[in-house]
Amino acid sequence: MLIIGIAGGTGSGKTTVVNQITEELKNEEVDVISQDHYYQDLSHLSMEERVKTNFDHPKSIDFDLLVKHLQELKEGKTIHQPVYSFKEHNRTSETVKTEPRKVVIVEGILILTNPEIRKMFDIKIYVHADSDERLIRRLKRDINERNRDLDEVLWRYQTTLKPMHQQFIEPTKEFADIIIPTNRYNTVAVDIVQTIIKDRLA
Ligand SMILES: Nc1ncnc2c1ncn2[C@@H]1O[C@H](COP(=O)(O)OP(=O)(O)O)[C@@H](O)[C@H]1O
Ligand SMILES: Nc1ccn([C@@H]2O[C@H](COP(=O)(O)O)[C@@H](O)[C@H]2O)c(=O)n1
Predict the structure, then answer these.
(1) Ligand 2 surroundings by CB, under 6 angstroms
(2) What pLDDT sits at residue 54?
(3) pLDDT digits (tens, 9 = 90+) for 11-35
(4) In its UniProt record, which GO terms are filed under biological process (predicted)?
(5) Closest ligand to 141 CA?
């Protein structure tokens, strides 16, 4: 099994890069695991309290469960991934059955902050876009897809997102084997990663 970690700030284009990489692979060859589904269960908090949570700090992620699931996949076991709701700011009661496959891609802003998970990755990738570009993308996406308004996105950006990015996320670039700049669509970098995967699978 080849395990690839793809980190980078919010709106840097991680999901887009994952989709481009997996386009060339057969469905039965690859699992994609998003760190977003592993946000801590906050059912004990009210909606008002959940909204105020700092979702850009490493403590907001249930890394114990993510490590356990990756280990189980490596051992050939099936896992049941949690499903997250950005509208409810919480895990839902649903899970997604995920079978072990030849390639497992884990993507998320904080995945390279955790030493145990870092050790499990065969390839570590950091996706980079400038912060103004990321904020513009985040604004558009959160308003269109995540039930947010302009004030909410800017409040979160100033209070937690930007400081957490500088303190925890950007420094993990040093752990990356490959850094992909995505201020524009980067087909060359995607081709290189696809070639590495095909080579390892051959
Ligand atoms: N290279 C790029 N150039 C322009 N827009 C992009 C690029 N990569 C991603 N986007 C757009 O930016 C938004 C956020 O991208 P996404 O891949 O979801 O980022 P992330 O998963 O890192 O938060 C999406 O609307 C996506 O279409
Ligand atoms: N309830 C939540 C949980 C997380 N966020 C934000 O999501 C960002 C990470 O997701 P990407 O797909 O953008 O990588 C992170 O920056 C959190 O601020 C949220 O807004 N609400």
Answers:
(1) 10-11, 36, 39, 55-56, 86, 89, 109, 156, 161
(2) 98
(3) 999 999 999 999 988 778 899 999 9
(4) CTP salvage; UMP salvage
(5) 1
> Which is the closest atom of ligand 1 to the Cα of 129?
1
Could you report the per-residue pLDDT of 3-13, keeping only the tens digit for each? 999 999 999 99
Amino acid at site 107: E
Range of the domain at 166: 2-201
- Give me the CATH number covering residue 48: 3.40.50.300
pTM: 0.96
Work out the average pLDDT over 64-76.
97
Burial class (CB in 10 A: 0-12, 13-18, 19+), 34: middle
pLDDT higher at 171 or 201: 171
Using DSSP's 3-state secondary structure scheme, residue 44 falls into coil
Pocket residues for ligand 1 (CB within 6 Å)?
A: 8, 10-16, 137, 141, 182, 184-185
Residue with the smallest CA separation from ligand 1 atom 13 is: 137
Quick one: which of 66, 72, 74 has its CA closest to 106?
Answer: 66
Contact 54, 164 (CB under 8 A): yes
3-state secondary structure of 61: strand
Q: How far is CA 171 from the centre of its chain?
A: 16
Q: Give the count of domains, the chain.
A: 1
- Average pLDDT value over all residues in the chain: 95
43 Cα to the center of ligand 1, angstroms:
30
